[in-house]
User: Fold this.
Amino acid sequence: MRRCLNSPFLLILALGAVVALLPLILPSNFYVRVVAIVYINALAVLGLNLLMGFAGQVSLGHAGFFGIGAYAVALGPVYLGLPGWASLIGGTALSGLLAFVVGRPILRLSGYYLAIATLGMGVLISMVVSNEANITGGPNGMEVPRLVLFGSRITGSLTWYWISGITLVIGALIVVNLIESPTGRAFRAIHDSEIAARVLGVDVARYKLLAFVLSAVFTSIAGSYLVLLDGFVTPNTTSFLLSIELVVMAVLGGLGSILGSIVGAAILVILPQFLTVFHDYEHAVLGAIIIVFLIFLPSGIVPALASLIRRGPA
Amino acid sequence: MTMIRRSLLIGAAAITAGLMTSVAYAADTVRIGSVLSITGPASFLGDPEKKTLEMYVRDLNAAGGVNGKKLELFIYDDGGDSNKARTFATRLVEEDKVDAVIAGSITGTSIAMRSVFEDAQTPYISLAGAAEIVTPVRKWVFKMPHTEPMSCGKIFEDLKKRKLTTIAMISGTDGWGKAMRAECVAMAPKEGIKVVKDEIYGAADSDMTPQLINIKNTPGVQAVINCGFGQGPAIVTRNYRQVGITVPLYQSHGVSSKSFINLAGPAANGIRLPAAALLVATQLADSDPLKKVALDYKTKFEKETGQPVSTFGGHARDALFMLIEAMKRAGSADKAKVRDEIEKTKGFIGTGGVINMSPTDHLGLDLTSFRMIEIKDGDWQLVQ
Assistant:
């Protein structure tokens, strides 16, 4: 257990095993769909964690990138005649480009100011998709053409389970590689102290921008996947509340923890499904659970448990 | 450490228990599923819908159920989010194995869920407004509320009666406002109505004075139509009086709840809107076939919930009883048979009007189901 927590590559292996074996025990399509949504959210949270957990920069506007990915696969095939996969790549590139352009000025800010600037960016994207009703269908949303790969339509929860699961494993592998590299060390140096990092010769602006662009790319892919799974997109995919939900997933699971990103996403996606038993008190119970977690495990679920296990008898 | 281990175990046990209860079910019931926007911005739709369904399912079960079987109701809250709605729709089909579905408080969630129920070949009755849900006709999909073209049609009918043919429009950017604006603008020339000014406001705007002054300064405007939903129309109404426009103002049935009158205050006096007869149940002529149904529902809902009746809950009532009648005619809850019977619904009297379904019409309402209503001293008044 100890070694597993210390070795990120073992973690990836374990994640791969879970993704591969879980469909064998999931009793129905509904569960498969819920787990697929967990993977998709985890992918976005993983990206956000790169920015927040490792590089230490806040973003309250990531739903904007989620929405760009989502609307790219909806609009690309309809208006540009692009195949779904090309729209997905195009949307991802667009998110990355936007993060690059917007990131330059706003990453000069820090703390609350950065939070507000990213928030503003997210809200602007949200306003565009809900106001350009002629193109995006406005608040009512629009149908997303099914993804076609190698001549067959990609539908069904199980197919998307595999696609999102494999992407998540690849995403986690990329993040693990990155944080073990000089780039990852630079991220962590910026997180700990910008001034110290600068003194050590780290190009702070460049690495912050890199983290921002990478996290935008992860989140954008997640957005595309989610609406391709649903076959339908609404401006909810760009909403401020979604940005907050992603941040909560990251903080709840544990900032700077890969496993934490997945655990955080899993809790926030799966818990509401169980809480339907409580009917009217669903939201209150969900809120209470999050508060309890954050009071008793302030560093996030995974890091807190990991340190407990490390301290305790092996 | 042991503490943590123990609490983890308890947590796991609780989750497993939750899982068991959601899977365990009695075998011999008629299972009706529902996904509504009970919380969130559309809760003013989902909340009365949920209360209505629960109230009537309880009563129907007390009276013995349908075809000798008890009804079992599965209600989930999507909070207005279409992705959540679709997850719950999948759950209804895969886990709860429902026989029929009454779901979708808003257009976005209704359309997002549509293909789930179509794939599962389960009869699906939507409670959302937009005509696009059932146009073109889809085999398994039906819908209850009046649509935006109907709202335009009824308003134009009233305008022509009053010989007002030059109008201005002011529309919200919410889904309903946008869809209705598009319909009205497209329909106006055919009806001999001229739209001389067409203004737009944001769904979250808190002041519409500039747009209304534009309308005021446009010569020849004989009436104004406000297409919108939520709080926007209430603000338009207040601003309308403040800038001193005197020509008649029309709203859509998107505002047909008491909360609109409360928000708009005295400014609402004299506004006209097309709406279901339910709002003016007590004023209907005794010969009106809708009177008894509407009055019964109004009395029952207001007594049991202590809230004023709205047409939204009324649509949930109509959907439930139309479904129950179809099940009775089919003699079972067999999905295909029930679907066929819903499509054969003729002369069904609901709070929203008389419903006549057909293979080419899965809405079943016409303009006669609407009443033109005027707001007078904080209450609805039937325009004769």
